[in-house]
């Protein structure tokens, strides 16, 4: 299994795939697959994002993208917050 510490994102923005090297993207995908397996098949609770919040702002409204992001963040113990253009006065 891949180590959770194999990709260091601390202090980095994740706005586009161009922000990452191909090796970092591969490691992110491996870690994602490992997390999904642990939660879905091993029923492990992994509070990796406990005490963390994420503000989600989407250029185009997408219920599926919003819900999958909110669900994933919450499954790891975080608090997702969806902001509309009216919320941020755009």
From TrEMBL:
Span of domain Aspartate/ornithine carbamoyltransferase carbamoyl-P binding: 12-89
Keyword presence, Transferase: yes
Keyword Nucleus appears in the UniProt entry: no
GO (cellular component) term, any one: mitochondrion
Membrane-traversing stretches: none
EC number, as in UniProt: 2.1.3.3
Name of the encoding gene: OTC
Gene3D superfamilies tied to this protein: Aspartate/ornithine carbamoyltransferase
Alphabetically ordered keywords of this record: Transferase
Organism: Nothobranchius rachovii (bluefin notho)
Family the UniProt entry places it in: Belongs to the aspartate/ornithine carbamoyltransferase superfamily. OTCase family.
Biological-process GO terms, alphabetical: citrulline biosynthetic process; L-arginine biosynthetic process via ornithine
Source lineage: Eukaryota, Metazoa, Chordata, Craniata, Vertebrata
InterPro entries documented for this protein: Asp/Orn_carbamoyltranf_P-bd (IPR006132), Asp/Orn_carbamoylTrfase (IPR006130), Asp/Orn_carbamoylTrfase_sf (IPR036901)
Coiled coil: none
Name by which UniProt lists this protein: ornithine carbamoyltransferase
Molecular-function annotations in GO: amino acid binding; ornithine carbamoyltransferase activity
